[in-house]
Write a structure and sequence with these properties.
Layout (H helix, E strand, L loop, with lengths): L1 E2 L23 E8 L4 E2 L3 E4 L10 H5 L2 E3 L2 E5 L5 E4 L1 H14 L7 H14 L11 E10 L11 E11 L10 E6 L16 H5 L2 H9 L4 E4 L15 E6 L2 E5 L9 H12 L4 E4 L3 H9 L3 E8 L3 E10 L2 E4 L7 H14 L10 E3 L2
Parallel strand pairs: 1-4, 10-11, 10-16, 13-14
Antiparallel strand pairs: 2-3, 2-4, 2-9, 5-8, 6-7, 6-8, 7-18, 8-9, 12-13, 12-15, 15-16, 16-17
Helix pairs in contact: 2-3
The structure holds 2-OXO-4-methylpentanoic acid (COI).
Length: about 350
């Protein structure tokens, strides 16, 4: 791997006022694939900078682009860890297959990421609720206007010190159920972490914000009957003491935080059900006083309590709009494992140095 260092490091932002995804570190990783040159080229770490892209770059037109999100943490002794990075690269290769893009060597990617995180150690915030967000992404970079898979790709990793994803932190979020627009349907790209899934969610998201909601809760694309996900997070409910979450049906992102949450809940003896859950069931549980809690899971969102769900103009205010007990327990467990306060029973913590 070739490493080119910046001449002068940037001034760091105030780590107590980071927000999400606004600041970027001094270096980035770039790894190019070119079929005509035999495939993957030498990986490089270079100063963070603009890309030079041909206007005919195919992903600007046809959207062959995928990404991931994971985090690195630093404890008070300066030990650096990442959370389940292997799972992210594995999922990224699955997304690549769905978008007809090339696969990459996951071990090489992890080695490169580890070098990059080591180099940017001083950018890892340690304040409560903060982390170094890692954004690997890959896009087709061949210049052409016909519709076919690119023969050139750019795999990049950028890093951003972040605080809470939501401006209101751990205050429960307000969701509105979207019953017109569709995020994903069977056979589509819903399970892949690809650019288009996020682009197609923006219009409904903006409409939701105008009405005072934070995010959209998506229903299935066929019947508009079953709850799927929120786009920036997977969704779970606590109904009558049981944690119920939509099953992975091909249209829902295979969330790594979702998997971690379900694993620690099951391990602690909480009943967990992964199955179809209709919005009618959620409304019925609410009316019967059995919708105890609702929460989202995601790398950026971590474990986010949901305080209100609006369906067809009616607000369901969950647990008086406050974070519920199971959600709070789960937030503590997941962040505790991530930040090495609790035992890493499942082997999820990856030491950087
Ligand atoms: C993540 O949680 O890492 C994501 O990629 C979601 C994105 C909307 C920030």
């Amino acid at each position: 791997m070739k490493i080119t260092l910046v001449k002068e490091r940037k001034q760091k932002p105030d780590f107590t006022k980071l927000g999400f995804g606004k600041y970027f570190t001094d270096h980035m990783l770039v790894w190019e694939y070119d079929e005509s040159k035999g495939g993957w080229q030498e990986m490089e770490i270079i100063p963070y900078d603009d890309f030079k892209i041909d206007p005919a770059c195919c992903s600007l037109h046809y959207g062959q682009g995928i990404f991931e999100g994971l985090k690195a943490y630093k404890d008070e002794k300066g030990n650096i860890t990442m959370f389940r990075p292997q799972a992210n690269f594995k999922r990224m290769n699955k997304s690549a297959e769905r978008l007809c893009m090339v696969n990459f060597d996951e071990e090489e990617a992890l080695k490169g990421l580890t070098e990059l995180v080591k180099l940017e150690a001083e950018w890892i915030p340690t304040e409560p609720g903060t982390a170094l967000y890692i954004r690997p992404f890959m896009f087709g970079s061949e210049a052409f206007l016909g519709v076919h898979p690119s023969k050139k790709y750019i795999f990049t990793i950028i890093l951003s010190p972040v605080g809470s994803y939501y401006a209101h932190g751990l205050e429960p979020t307000k969701l509105i159920v979207e019953d017109y627009f569709t995020r994903a349907s069977q056979g589509g790209t819903g399970e892949a972490k690809c650019m288009g899934n996020y682009a197609c969610s923006l219009l409904a998201g903006e409409e939701a914000k105008k009405k005072g909601f934070d995010q959209v809760l998506w229903l299935d694309g066929e019947e508009k009957k079953y709850v799927t996900e929120v786009g920036s997070m997977n969704m779970a409910f606590v109904i009558d003491g049981k944690v119920v979450t939509p099953e992975l049906d091909g249209s829902i992102l295979r969330g790594i935080t979702r998997d971690s949450a379900l694993t620690v809940l099951r391990d602690a003896g909480y009943p967990v059900e992964e199955r179809k859950i209709s919005i009618a069931e959620v409304v019925e549980a609410y009316k019967a006083g059995k919708l105890d809690e609702a929460f989202g899971t995601g790398t950026a969102a971590v474990i986010s309590p949901v305080g209100t769900i609006n369906f067809k103009g009616e607000d369901m205010v969950i647990n008086n709009g406050k974070m519920g007990k199971i959600t709070e327990w789960l937030y503590d467990r997941i962040t505790g494992i991530q930040k090495c306060r609790y035992e890493d029973k499942f082997g999820w913590v990856y030491p950087v140095k």
